[in-house]
Write a structure and sequence with these properties.
mainly alpha; 5 helices; rod-shaped; 3 strands; three-stranded antiparallel beta sheet
């Protein structure tokens, strides 16, 4: 965060033009301590974001959602939150996307293990072997269902952002 580059940050991080106007007005009228105070606020906020990223999904999601709402409210009355509001919504979106990507990646890794069993034994396993990656929404193994044409891996808990539980269908050549 620096005065020279702040315009790019403000314009890229927000969809709301009224918020952008308020940010630019605060920057335009800022005193010498504006940036140091905003950086200190940013650091404190990021400590809370990092802590939330380390929680299990069922705790992290509502914590990040709460932080997202808190920064919006705090921005209205606290000039020190001015620069943080520019990027705060991005962290919530990044987290939601990263968990979805982790679910897909773990489903693929689990499917490879199932395919390897099929290649070795000639049939799909009746249950998933132990020590496979968990689905990140519940932290538990995927639900595994053999089908006539292959198998399905389902997440046991919903993506709270999309309010749906994902399932991944895999085909097996006969």
């Amino acid at each position: 965060m620096s005065p020279e580059r702040i315009g790019n940050v403000v314009q890229s991080g927000l969809d709301d033009s009224l918020t952008q106007k308020k940010i630019f007005e605060r920057i335009r009228t800022a005193d010498d301590e504006f940036f140091p105070r905003n950086i200190a606020y940013w650091n404190g906020f990021m400590d809370r974001v990092r802590a939330a990223f380390g929680l299990p999904y069922a705790e992290a999601y509502p914590t990040l959602k709460k932080l997202d709402k808190e920064i919006s409210k705090d921005f209205e009355k606290n000039p020190d939150a001015t620069l943080t509001i520019c990027l705060a919504p991005t962290f919530f979106r990044i987290y939601a996307l990263s968990v979805r990507l982790e679910a897909g990646s773990n489903a693929l890794r689990t499917a490879v293990a199932v395919y390897l069993i099929k290649a070795r034994t000639g049939q799909l396993p009746k249950a998933l072997p132990a020590n496979l990656p968990a689905e990140p929404f519940s932290g538990e193994p995927f639900e595994y269902t053999p089908t006539a044409g292959g198998f399905i891996l389902r997440c046991r808990a919903k993506d709270l952002d999309k309010n749906e539980a994902y399932e991944y269908e895999f085909k097996v050549k006969k």
